[in-house]
């Protein structure tokens, strides 16, 4: 009996070790979802889980795609009550669907989403990443209407909270794949009230998809350039001493672009997040296919720096599971 118990215990221990080693041997490969098509990913971490929000392809849907994971290997799909094309339509709205989410946890612990719908920027709030969400504006209007400033495509918002607690909103693009403009404004703690007039802070070679991070006292304004429908799309960055610039383009910019072998096509519109003192970049790339519309897939890689703080070109290596 004791011998049987010993062998049972030994077998159980070996099984647990094997499962642990199997998990360690796994890697997070690209694309994250082989059969799913989406773009413009945003991400937040909450209570041990990661929540990814994305534009539905082709070219946006009536709502957002949402995925939940603990390790980037196993996924659950979720849905949100807001934003929707119906809920986010104003007298100044244009035809564009629900695009380019940006989600951040505010200083008050709540979650805030900046979303492009109808070529306008809307802002919502929630106590949980999965909602329920509601428009922060009591009159149910966009935060930034399509006609806010002439000549600018008012999409692709990104909210950044600095070390001193000041809150900034970046946004903007161009029309017909040219003349991209980037604006920034300081926000009040309510995440919706402008504390100043918006300023044009367009960095070199900018088109859309601004995303701000701060590392070692420097501001890294990251963004996409080129055409999102083909291999010219890629990710660049510029560095400044303030949230407003002035900007100098990074030494290795662009840091992520199409590869000659066609394995990566048109990577862009990314987010950056940090886990265990390691930065990661979440982005989309084009799925090659014969249709006239574009399909994109979500990808993940590590984001690294050299000794002088320059962002290194993305290595396209697999990353280990998140634990």
TrEMBL record:
GO molecular function: hydrolase activity, hydrolyzing O-glycosyl compounds
Active-site residues per Swiss-Prot or TrEMBL entry: 40 (proton acceptor), 208 (proton donor)
Site (Important for catalytic activity, responsible for pKa modulation of the active site Glu and correct orientation of both the proton donor and substrate): 156
CDD domains for this protein: GH43_F5-8_typeC-like
Keywords linked to the UniProt accession: Carbohydrate metabolism, Glycosidase, Hydrolase, Polysaccharide degradation, Xylan degradation
Source organism, top-level taxon: Bacteria
Transmembrane intervals: none
Similarity-based family: Belongs to the glycosyl hydrolase 43 family.
Protein name: Glycosyl hydrolase family 43
């Amino acid at each position: 009996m004791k011998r049987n118990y010993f062998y049972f215990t030994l077998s159980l221990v070996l099984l647990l070790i094997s499962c642990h080693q199997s998990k360690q041997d796994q890697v997070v490969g690209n694309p994250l979802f082989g059969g799913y098509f989406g773009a413009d990913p945003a991400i937040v971490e909450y209570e041990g889980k990661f929540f990814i929000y994305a534009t539905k392809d082709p070219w946006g849907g009536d709502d957002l795609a949402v995925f939940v994971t603990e390790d980037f290997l196993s996924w659950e799909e979720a849905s949100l009550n807001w934003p929707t094309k119906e809920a986010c339509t104003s007298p100044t709205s244009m035809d564009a669907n629900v695009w380019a989410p940006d989600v951040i946890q505010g200083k008050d612990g709540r979650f805030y989403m900046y979303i492009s719908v109808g070529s306008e920027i809307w802002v919502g709030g929630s106590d949980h990443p999965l909602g329920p969400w509601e428009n922060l504006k009591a009159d149910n209007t966009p935060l930034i209407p399509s006609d806010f400033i002439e000549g600018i495509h008012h999409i692709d918002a990104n909210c950044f909270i600095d070390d001193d607690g000041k809150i900034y909103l970046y946004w903007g693009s161009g029309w017909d794949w040219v003349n991209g403009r980037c604006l920034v404004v300081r926000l009040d703690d309510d995440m919706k009230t402008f504390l100043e007039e918006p300023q044009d802070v367009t960095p070199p070679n900018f088109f859309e998809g601004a995303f701000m991070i701060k590392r070692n006292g420097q501001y890294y304004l990251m963004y996409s350039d080129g055409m999102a429908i083909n291999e010219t799309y890629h990710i660049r960055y510029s560095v400044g001493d303030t949230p407003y610039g002035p900007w100098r383009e990074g030494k290795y910019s662009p840091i992520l672009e199409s590869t000659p072998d066609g394995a990566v096509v048109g990577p862009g519109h990314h987010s950056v997040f940090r886990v265990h003192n390691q930065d990661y970049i979440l982005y989309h790339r084009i799925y090659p296919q014969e249709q006239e519309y574009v399909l994109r897939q979500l990808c993940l890689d590590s984001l690294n720096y050299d000794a002088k703080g320059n962002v290194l070109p993305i290595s396209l290596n697999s990353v280990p599971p998140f634990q």
